[in-house]
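Sample entry copied in:
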Amino acid sequence: MKKRLICFLFVLLFCAGAVIPCYGASSSFHWYCVHVKDHVQPSVGREMAFVEELDGYYIDHRHSDPNDAEKVVYLTFDAGYENGNIAKILDVLKEEEVPAAFFILGNLITKNTDLVKRMVEEGHTVGNHTVHHRDMSGVGESDFLKELEDLENLFREQTGYTMSNYYRPPEGCFSRENLEVAQKNGYKTVFWSFAYPDWDNNKQMSEEKAKTILLENLHNGEVMLLHPTSSTNAQILSEIIREMKAQGYRFGRLDELVYGSRER
């Protein structure tokens, strides 16, 4: 409980633009990203350097110049359940011909199988957010792998498809040991370089404020985290995508972020 409280308090600081990492237990971290200034890529501190050494990704370093002729954003969503907004967001992505990555939970697979199949069939990447959305930073190797493998098996059984090897830690809480186990078992851990407080359905900010935050923090090589249950996101996504395209951004796939190739 204490560790969860620390992580929660850090999220509040992060959303205000803080840049200090959160430590829970001695081996526990909570992912953060800094407030973007002048559309320049943020970077994590030395204490987090091990993340990229262990196949963790949060930004595309190959596309770092804000004035580059080619600018790319990776659009990602953490999706645990459907409340009418995920379908709307898929509609927008289809209309705008934009690929995205969805990190999903077991609940979404069992209760909204058709929606999950639609993600795959419309060309999106489906990644692993674990079965139960537990804080993984304090679990042992066997429990850690069980959360990931059980989700993969459920996904395959319910959809007939194979899940990607991309993993995103629930709540952004993780340990070095988590990343070592993930790497050893062929997973790539995907964090983000920008997120904003959109997850609480009872505290949705205004559309104008959300648009301002998203566009002010836009940066080349960005890995953007959104929650598709957000009614605000569902309403503004089309406009945001069109504005990003107007500013010269294209939307990349995680295979490009991780493997450096648009086609794999």
Notes: The domain at 57-259 is CATH 3.20.20.370 (TIM Barrel).
